[in-house]
Design goal:
Distance between the termini: 36 Å
CATH architecture of the largest domain: 4-Layer Sandwich
Radius of gyration: 23 Å
Structural class: alpha+beta
Strand content: 5-15%
Number of helices: 23
CATH superfamily of the largest domain: Aldehyde ferredoxin oxidoreductase, N-terminal domain
Largest sheet: 7 strands, mixed
Number of domains: 3
């Protein structure tokens, strides 16, 4: 079926498209062809892009496509930028996150499929059922590049199917297929069944039982262990009766300068192999950072009550490498191979190796934060979360809060259905993961998120519910990393460790003058509050640009060797655009502000840029014991942050800022 031109007008679409009913070329009720268009039928070539956005309305069983205009791509790049602009323009304020009116977006960027180390990523986005504001989560692996090779830079799903379905996207075509046979299956089992049904070389983004049942921090899993973990995007898929999006393609996007791109690929691999952070990741995974952070008093234990523990060596990266590690996995083109595969063959903690091994965040959230120092048990907890499709961070911090509530007498054993909520009880941790996923017992409360759960329980439990905007803290200590604390407070998706820069990088002297990180900030103490407003605003802009391109933190500045200038070189080789680091930052600033506007429209403001009371209390011991962020500290930093961003003191971008960023229409 050929593109017949735009059948929808107004501000919804960045480009023109075609539309056809799902039943127009239907076979059986279980397998209906919705829409098809091959790239060779498209007009124009946009280097680095598939050039189309696919839209599917599950309520009507129809689909259409739109072209990606070059000016729109240049303004937002892709990834988070595409998703932010689509959702900000198309969702009405107050849209029910779990209603058919919400839209679920999967998007990738111009570098996906380029083979450059760190470029194999995709983003999922929607109005978050967890925070009720901007919701996003991203993951690495085969899905993003495969989706582009299948013909699309983004997929937008709205409505709700009458029965469980999945999308089969291949060769510029999409089918809505019956998913009754895989509904209720764990993620790896569902993925394997869907690949058997479609194509053995396909990739799938799937939800597990947690997403089907609407747990507010259900996630989307690809390759069995690649989690787009945060914000509850898996619950939105579940609310639409959408079990999976399966993609396969063999049509790579055209690039501007293949010879230069090949040289850059080779150079970035060489730099990664030489870089100490990348070598540490390859050897011991993300967990390589646990020991050093604990030594600095910055790794949380027992619900962020402590920042260091003599037992941390039982669960750190080198220990995992020596004990349960059985393999390493890498994304395409990446020499880092940070992914872990673990082996626990026998006993109550035997794990299915398909679900990978625990990362630093998981070891913190489901290990040290709940007082658990058994790597086998943590690996089992990680397996359960990936099987059910749960964010490990929100899951672990919710359990940690419940254990502290028990210790304080706020929750009783009867409240927990007879579970022993003592710190470090592995059986309880595993039982609560299942309850959260299944919406049963105490898990039904915990599955609402920490802000909601603590508000329901009350009795002072809000003070140690470690969350911002109902999104649980990642396992980085704001009292030791003050800038991270400010970034947690101001992140558009709630507490997030990937949207700002880690203070330890600045203290170590890392600079990037081309994007504003000059000697003005070099060597600032991680515990200092001075200039952190500027540092984090700059970092958030850069991260937004990275998430729009969309590239990995581990291969890029400040953690990895790919500088902003080199990133611009890669972008030029792919697209032909002469993008400067300054333009890179401008796009990032535009995207970050756009997500802020999304939240403002939903009623968020300065009142929501907060930190838990615990951040203002002293740690009992360790190098950070005298470092706190009081409400007065945060208020002062917020004033400085808003001023630096060109916002009012209420946290609203000024008209001048919106004009400068080209966002005045909003």
């Amino acid at each position: 079926m050929r593109d017949r031109g735009s059948l929808r007008s107004g501000s919804r679409s960045p480009g023109g498209g075609g539309r056809s009913p799902a039943g127009c070329d239907a076979g059986t009720p279980q397998e209906r062809l919705c829409w098809g268009l091959r790239r060779k039928e498209m007009c124009g070539v946009l280097k680095g892009y598939a050039g189309r956005i696919l839209r599917v309305d599950l309520s009507t069983g129809t689909a259409d496509s739109e072209a990606v205009p070059e000016e729109w791509a240049r303004a937002f790049f892709g990834g988070r930028g595409f998703a932010a602009d689509l959702l900000a323009r198309e969702l009405a304020a107050g849209t029910d996150p779990l209603g058919p009116g919400n839209k679920f977006v999967i998007a990738t960027g111009p570098l996906a499929g380029s083979g450059v180390a760190g470029s194999t990523r995709h983003i999922t986005a929607c109005r978050s059922p967890l925070t009720s504001g901007w919701g996003e989560a991203n993951a690495a692996g085969r899905f993003g590049p495969m989706m582009k090779a299948a013909g699309f830079d983004a997929i937008v799903v709205e409505g709700r199917a009458e029965r469980p379905v999945y999308l089969w996207v291949t060769g510029g075509r999409v089918e809505i297929r019956d998913a009754s046979g895989v509904w209720g299956l764990f993620t790896a089992d569902a993925r394997e069944a869907l690949l058997r049904e479609t194509h053995p070389g396909a990739e799938a983004a799937v939800i597990g039982p947690a997403g089907e049942r609407g747990c507010l921090f259900a996630c989307v899993i690809s390759e069995n262990d690649r989690a787009a973990g945060r914000s509850g995007t898996g619950a939105v898929m579940g609310s639409k009766n959408l079990k999976a999006v399966v993609v396969h393609g063999e049509d790579p996007a055209p690039v501007h300068d293949e010879e230069r791109l090949a040289a850059l690929r080779k150079e970035i691999v060489r730099l990664c192999l030489e870089h100490p952070n990348c070598r540490g990741l390859r050897e011991n995974g993300t967990a390589n950072g646990i020991g050093p952070h604990d030594a600095l008093g910055m790794f949380p234990h027992r619900n962020f009550r402590e920042g260091t523990s003599p037992r941390v060596g039982e669960v750190d990266g080198p220990t995992m490498t020596r004990t349960i590690l059985s393999g390493r996995k890498a994304c395409r083109g990446c020499p880092v191979a940070c992914r872990r595969v673990v082996e626990v063959r026998e006993g109550p903690f035997a794990v299915d190796p398909r679900y990978g091994g625990p990362e630093l965040e998981t070891i913190g959230a489901l290990g040290t934060c709940v007082g658990l120092y058994d790597l086998r048990a943590i690996a089992k907890a990680n397996e359960l979360c990936n099987k059910y499709g749960l964010d490990t961070i929100n899951t672990g911090l919710s359990i940690a809060w419940a254990m502290e509530c028990s210790e304080r007498g706020i929750l009783t054993r009867a409240d927990a259905g007879g579970l022993d909520l003592t710190w470090g009880n592995a059986e309880t941790v595993l039982a609560l993961i299942r309850q959260i996923a299944e919406g049963e017992g105490l898990g039904a409360l915990l599955g609402k998120g920490l802000k909601a759960a603590s508000a329901e329980v009350g009795r002072g439990s809000e003070e140690f519910a470690m969350q911002v905007k109902n999104q649980a803290f990642p396992v980085h200590m704001p009292r030791g990393k003050v800038g991270q604390g400010l970034s947690y407070a101001t992140s558009n998706r709630g507490a997030c460790h990937t949207q700002g820069i880690h203070d330890t990088s600045i203290e170590a002297g890392k600079t990037a003058p081309e994007i504003g990180f000059t000697d003005r900030y070099r060597g600032l103490s991680s515990r200092s509050k001075e200039l952190k407003a500027e540092v984090e605003a700059l970092a958030q802009n850069y991260r937004a640009a990275q998430d729009s391109l969309i590239v990995c933190r581990f291969t890029s500045w400040d953690y990895g060797p790919t500088t902003p200038a080199m990133l611009c070189e890669v972008l030029h080789a792919v697209t032909g655009w002469d993008v400067t680091p300054e333009e890179l930052m401008l796009v990032g600033e535009r995207v970050f502000n756009l997500c802020r506007l999304f939240n403002l429209r939903e009623g968020f403001g300065r009142k929501d840029d907060t930190l838990p009371t615990r951040c203002g209390t002293n740690l009992p011991e360790g190098p950070c014991r005298d470092s706190v962020i009081t409400k007065a500290d945060l208020d002062r930093m917020l004033d400085e942050y808003y001023d630096f961003r060109g916002w009012t003191r209420d946290g609203v971008p000024t008209d001048e800022t919106l004009r400068r960023l080209g966002l005045q229409r909003l």
